[in-house]
Amino acid sequence: MISTELLLQCAIAGLCILLTISFARARGDKLSFLPYPPGPKPLPIVGNAFQLPQKMPWKTYAQWGKEYGDLIHFTAFGQHIIVINSAKVANDLFERRSNIYSDKPHVPMVNLTGWDYVIGFMPYSDRWRQHRRYFHQVFRPQQAVKYNDTIRRKVRDLLRRLRNDPDGFGDHTKYWATDNIMSTVYGYDLDPKGDGFIELAENAMTMLSHAVFPGTFLVNSLPSLGYLPDWCPGTGFKRYGRQCSEMTTAIQEVPYKITKERMEQSGPFPCVTSDLIKRSIASGRMNAEEEGVIKRVAGVAYAAGSDTSASALQTAILAMVVYPGAKCKAQAELDAVVGNSRLPDFDDRELLPYTEAFFREVLRWQPVTPLALAHATSSDDVYEGYYIPAGATVFGNSWAILHDERTYEDPEEFRPERFLHTDGTLTDKFPMSAFGFGRRICPGRHVADASVWAAIASVLSAFDVQKATDDAGREIPVKVEYTDGLLSHPLPFKCRIVPRKDASVGTI
Questions:
Q1: What is the rounded CA–CA span in Å between residue 390 and residue 90?
Q2: Of the N and C termini of the chain, which has fewer Cβ atoms inside 10 Å?
Q3: Which domain CATH number covers 396?
């Protein structure tokens, strides 16, 4: 049922649309004679606004893609929306025409919730380039290896937690992911008794997901609603924004303060924030503006890195339960290459093709961000005879691309072999769409890749993950079900996690 607030917003929206149309006509906008890409038939004025899926839009867009093609178009209150459902089109537009497809749409709820400091939401500008450059300085491949010792230490802590409390694996994966990124970014180890950093990141990301999810807040389609006074009915989105903004401020300020105070007491130490501060001081650039950039870069890495890594590891554990054949093949390879006297390490990675394929299939099977953050076109474009206007919102549908039957046979199945040649060697295929597209691809992907790979390989090596049993000894069925939102997580499920090898477990 449509809420009263939404109805009020729609009533106000009608007036806003008429004013927008009048303004556009007054400017003399030139419409292209070429057709837009195909898509569902729109209604007058509102377009397809009331056809937008409220749950798991990536699956609806993938279904529309089967009907209309790899490039689909629809509108919501005059805003043009493009969805890309194939790797070829994504490469053609996001990579080969990145000068056009690297901007960001204006999403009012991003500003209202305080997330406008995230480079994923910044418009393509000098400010975006500055933040991207800082990310690259500390997260590029050559730099990312500096954090391998931290990754190893946090994986061992994860294994100890799983050994001591296997039933709490859901909480342990969240703790591991947040602890790993906090140590990498701030040099801070989480307090096992609780310090609020896990909850802060999780709650903030949940609110962000709700704020930017297509179709959730009408103000994202009709920015004019943002000018309504707070007392006006239908402005609950403003209260929501203020609540979230408090958390986004804390994400930037609180951990940064801890790191800075530690540096003042004992000097620089290995972590992203310390490295950035040290570089800025050495170059003579450190001032309030520079410090703000460092806070934002670190805060984004903390908030985004904790939730995404936890989801990926939970998906790996789910795959071990539902697809024991794949799990056993990876374990056999680990036993043969690594043995049982130590845990797998980064030097082993190229010697473990099936384990690598298992990791890649985790990213493909259930991508953490099934619908990538929106891009926007900075100028008009024509692709294969279709007109794509400037200012259009463009989504890369990671789910559709990674479940494309033309590339991945039986895509709903978890099958690591799809990344292997018949002789068992790795193919050059990698589910890069799981990290985003073009110039907007995740800048922290190299650290995320290393962290999640190490965790998956170590869990496979040290433990046997099985279906849980009831009091009568019967296996409890496990369903592959995921949450909705910007980030997708497995719904809670039960499993048994038991040590495989005394020697291997003893090393943790």
A1: 17
A2: N
A3: 1.10.630.10
CA distance 361 to 372: 18
Tally the domains of the chain. 1
Task: Detail the residues annotated as belonging to a binding site.
Answer: 442
- Residues 460-485 have pLDDT tens digits of 999 999 999 999 999 999 999 999 98
3-state helix, strand, coil in the chain (%, to 5): 55, 10, 35
pTM above 0.85, yes or no: yes
Count of H-run helices and E-run strands, the chain: 17, 8
C-alpha–C-alpha distance, residues 252 and 229, integer Å: 29
Residues in the chain: 508
Residue-by-residue DSSP string for 49-92: GGGS-SS-HHHHHHHHHHHH-SEEEEEETTEEEEEE-SHHHHII
Q: Is residue 6 situated within a structural domain?
A: no
406's tokens? 């033309």
Give residue-wise pLDDT tens across range 346-388: 999 999 999 999 999 999 999 999 999 999 999 999 999 999 9
Give the whole-angstrom CA distance, residue 471 versus residue 238. Answer: 50
